[in-house]
Amino acid sequence: MRSASAALLLLLLLAPAAAADGSKSGSGNNKAHNYEEALRKSLLYFEAQRSGRLPHGQRVPWRHHSGLTDGLEQGVDLVGGYYDAGDHVKFGLPMAFTVTMLSWSLVEYGDDVAAAGELAHALEAIKWGADYFVKAHTRPDELWAEVGDGDTDHYCWQRPEDMTTSRQAYKVDRDHPGSDVAGETAAALAAASMVFRESNPHYAHLLLHHAQQLFEFADKYRGKYDSSIAEVKSYYASVSGYKDELLWAALWLHRATGRADYLDYAVDNAHDFGGTGWAITEFSWDVKYAGVQILAARLLLRGEHTAAQRETLERYQAKAEHYVCACLGRNAPGDEDANNNVERSPGGMLYIRQWNNMQYVTNAAFLLSAYSDYLSDAGVDTVTCAGGATADAGEAAALAREQVDYVLGDNPRGVSYLVGYGAKYPARVHHRAASIVPYKHSKQFIGCTQGFDHWFGRRSSNPNVLVGAIVGGPDRRDRFRDDRENYMQTEACTYNTAPMVGMFAKFNRMAREEREQRVATAKSPVTSTAADV
After folding, report:
1. How much is the pLDDT for 336?
2. Out of 33, 254, 430, 431, which one is annotated catalytic?
3. Is 322 a catalytic residue?
4. Active site includes 162?
5. CA-CA distance, 112 to 106, in Å (whole number)?
6. Strands 382-384 and 390-392, sheet pairing
7. Which of 194, 251, 400, 514 has the fewest Cβ atoms nearer than 10 Å?
8. CA distances to 24, 262, 345, 409, 531 from 402, in Å
9. Residue 153 a catalytic site member
10. pLDDT tens digit string along 286-298?
């Protein structure tokens, strides 16, 4: 929980910067946003992505039970978890990252989530994923990393309740390693254990036990999971390798346990694993370095280190601030082949690449916000950029809010890319279940080609609104085409929305503080001085 003094300082830093940046968005739509509504709807989205037997409290009525035989052929129970996007494969790496970011949202902003009345739903969202990973971790050195086959799945346009595609399950083990997926799952369960520590200590202990075993497995039997599971390469290939996930998992385990050996691991391997070498301009389900560097910088700012570790943590912080400055556009130009800063669209959106750019926007907003909070807590006002320039910590906080508001509709098109929020949002989301008549309304079987023939190509809006989903979003010129076939822009993913749970909660609290401050200012009596008279 942020202290009241830290929150007030951040509010004062944010207000002028936000006012200045707001004039740059080109949207003409800079109205106050209902962040509490956005938070509520974002958590609803995870219920729409559930696989398995749905609980009685399920709030998305157009979904029903699915994937009830997952793992049966392999003799394991793999029922549950999340579908990552608009299809029905359960990919372990992005699912684990989703749980990590949901958990980090509550670790940093759990009190804000609770104040908005959404803590129970947020805990349910985390537990749905964590329960699945506990089941998928069947032995200390065995983790089931995928259920379903992307190739056959993409040939079908079906509701999950009608699935006829392969439910083959794939695992990593000591002979077929997957340090990246095992490391990310360890990070997810370690972060989740912190969330449940007070409300359910037994469950928190169980999650931490699995996290520690998974980290040991990932470190002892090293290798990329897409070398062991060829089927994943076309969908979630581990381009960055596994070293960032090992550092990421170690730092989350250190934060969850306080054990010095996990921090020693992150410090001792900082150079060889690229933690203090890579200057990164993106953060995603694949590339964790910026998150690693910001977690390490937090330890430096809080003084939670030994004298011998300080120099390495300072190098981590330099790379963390390179990421922050890249988002702010403050790093000095690099070599011809290197771009030290993140591109911005005319409307102000951070732009990394064409396919599902919103994942980079929402994750950047979270990192910028968290780091500005860490600086505020430490009483630090500035960020040092590559080339010697500096930036104000409040600018990072303002940019985070600007990106969140862009998602909610402060953009040239006036479109909310959070489905179901605002007056104008994507109506033809690339999502099988949302685009077909609900199973509860029509239990008549819909086959693979029938779904394409009768539902996929319809020009009308989806019959089911995928509330809380954040779609891939616009291109580098703020252009967006709301078409079900335009999957690069209209498909939503769980890891797009996960970091926004924390962001919506935080900015809901800040918006409330701003309103209270305005009321207090309006009520303050006007006093005259001798000079005025």
Report:
1. 58
2. 430
3. no
4. no
5. 9
6. antiparallel
7. 514
8. 10, 35, 13, 11, 41
9. no
10. 999 999 999 999 9
